[in-house]
């Protein structure tokens, strides 16, 4: 199985050029095109698209070329959520990925509209895929549910409201499961849909996704405490300043590290039902990265 | 053929209870549910869903029950666009349909998120319809395109930017075609998709939609000048105050009336290819209402 670093080196540039080409094609209004493209192309790590593609690579590598636009659609949803999350009425952030946030660069109105334009574009791209209609409908449903008011948007609301009260660990887990976990999970399950995995394999991936999503958010919380702004490309120690509920805030830094290890171990164990028939090393490599 | 007033009396309550029931089902976070439901149930005229249903009634009345959730999905998109359009960074409106705008009632952050939650929910509802997958994909594509950065969102950007310069009549038409026309057109064409109309009939509806959309916006511009706030349920004379480009602003009130009549006549004429085989009276009734 290909190494994660090589997989990334091969596919991130492919994803980036696809995103850039399709954005040029599908937005004509110049200011809107500039604002939407600015944030999509701001150099994210493309974690969510890579997770979808890693599932496809693991179970049916030949479908990778056709899966790229599906993976790209997820990145549109992720980017819209970042643009809106940075707005003055929300987290009021000036920097993202080392650059001015969308509203700092283009003004608030255009930032709102850039986010608003990314959402339907994601579903347009999914409807245009060269897969069977049945597969496309499942992909659309998975992304709509993960990004929607039962999941990602509910997590944003809970996060915002949590600033005014201390959450329990169970409440914090539930919040993270929605806010960060749901879209990561949708990415993995969209990979399962493309490969038409049976329900047993899909259940294993779903379980993996739950723990990976939590580990991902705990790691993010830890980095906010331990990193410098230069390393992260955005201001650090923001969570504490905003009274955000975080793992280090609730459990201390050591407790958060332990929670991270627990989730990574559970995620790895979730893949056990697959190992007899499948090389899971590429999926497991995402866990190794989060551990370091 | 059923009269438009009777059609409305029968179907608006059905739409409203479906919307209310589905919103209760598909949003669990209490604050988010309250904010999303508030604006969707604020008593709009449901023009876009009714247009979809009028096409279905005209060509295949038996599909009306199954078409209701498709029509409801369009109303979610329309409502999100109103919530975001009213935001302080956009039109900064306090009143909508006679009630406080979403951000006045729930705060700006929740208003942004309520709008953000309505978009994926619309696509989730379309993916859940009991139509063939091929039909559902076409419905999703139509709505995503109409609501997306080539159409509705581009129109919002052009409208916002137009506040700083005088547009020509051609530019104003292009703006309105995107901002208001695209979603009205998507509604009619989604009706055509459900009835699996042939390309000739679909082309006639598409032509009808272009003129209806323009007529609809001209009428809205005229009402902003001639109505009282009590009649409209929102402040009047807002367009002039905001330096908005409008038909009365560009052509005077009489010129705008003439332009309205021209578009209504063209819309009616667009239905000519259908009259030999189809009772078009329900569709034509939308024009009569706009004329009065």
Question: What tags apply to this protein structure?
Answer:
homodimer, 292 residues, mainly alpha, Farnesyl Diphosphate Synthase, two-stranded antiparallel sheet, Polyprenyl_synt (chains A, B), transferase (chains A, B), Farnesyl diphosphate synthase (chains A, B)
Structure commentary:
The structure is a homodimer of 292-residue chains. By secondary structure, chain A is an all-alpha fold. Chain A has a domain of 204 residues: Farnesyl Diphosphate Synthase. Chain A has a two-stranded antiparallel ribbon with strand order 1-2. In chain A, helix 1 runs antiparallel to helix 2, helix 1 packs across helix 4 and helix 8 runs antiparallel to helix 9. The longest helix of chain A is centred in the last third of the chain and has 28 residues. Chain A is globular and about 45 Å long. The two termini of chain A are 21 Å apart. The model of chain A has no long low-confidence stretch (mean pLDDT 94). At the A-B interface, helix 2, helix 4, helix 6, helix 7 and helix 8 of A face helix 2, helix 4, helix 6, helix 7 and helix 8 of B. Chains A, B: Pfam families: polyprenyl_synt (PF00348). Chains A, B: This is Farnesyl diphosphate synthase. Chains A, B: Its EC number is 2.5.1.10. Chains A, B: It catalyses: isopentenyl diphosphate + (2E)-geranyl diphosphate = (2E,6E)-farnesyl diphosphate + diphosphate. Chains A, B: Its cofactor is Mg(2+).
């Amino acid at each position: 199985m290909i190494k994660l670093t090589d997989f990334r080196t091969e596919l991130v540039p492919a994803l980036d050029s696809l995103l850039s080409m399709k954005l040029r094609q599908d937005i004509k209004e110049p200011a809107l095109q500039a604002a939407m493209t600015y944030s999509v192309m701001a150099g994210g790590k493309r974690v969510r698209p890579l997770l979808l593609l890693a599932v496809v690579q693991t179970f049916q590598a030949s479908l990778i070329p056709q899966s790229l636009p599906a993976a790209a659609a997820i990145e549109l949803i992720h980017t819209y959520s970042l643009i809106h999350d940075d707005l003055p009425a929300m987290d009021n952030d000036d920097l993202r990925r080392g650059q001015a946030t969308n509203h700092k660069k283009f003004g608030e109105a255009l930032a709102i509209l850039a986010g608003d334009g990314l959402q339907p574009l994601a579903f347009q791209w999914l409807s245009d895929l060269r897969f069977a209609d049945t597969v496309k409908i499942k992909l659309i449903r998975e992304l709509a549910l993960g990004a929607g008011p039962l999941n990602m948007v509910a997590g944003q609301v809970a996060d915002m409201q949590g600033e005014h009260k201390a959450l329990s660990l169970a409440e914090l887990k539930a919040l993270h499961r929605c806010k960060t976990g749901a879209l990561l999970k949708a990415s993995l399950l969209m990979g399962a849909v493309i490969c038409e995995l049976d329900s047993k394999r899909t259940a294993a991936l779903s379980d993996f996704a739950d723990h990976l999503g939590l580990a991902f958010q705990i790691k993010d919380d830890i980095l906010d405490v331990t990193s410098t702004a230069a390393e992260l490309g955005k201001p650090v120690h923001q969570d504490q300043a905003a009274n955000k509920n975080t793992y280090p805030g609730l459990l201390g830094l050591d407790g958060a590290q332990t929670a991270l290890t627990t989730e990574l171990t559970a995620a790895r164990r979730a893949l056990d039902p697959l190992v007899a028939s499948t090389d899971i090393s590429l999926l497991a490599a995402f866990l190794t990265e989060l551990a370091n």
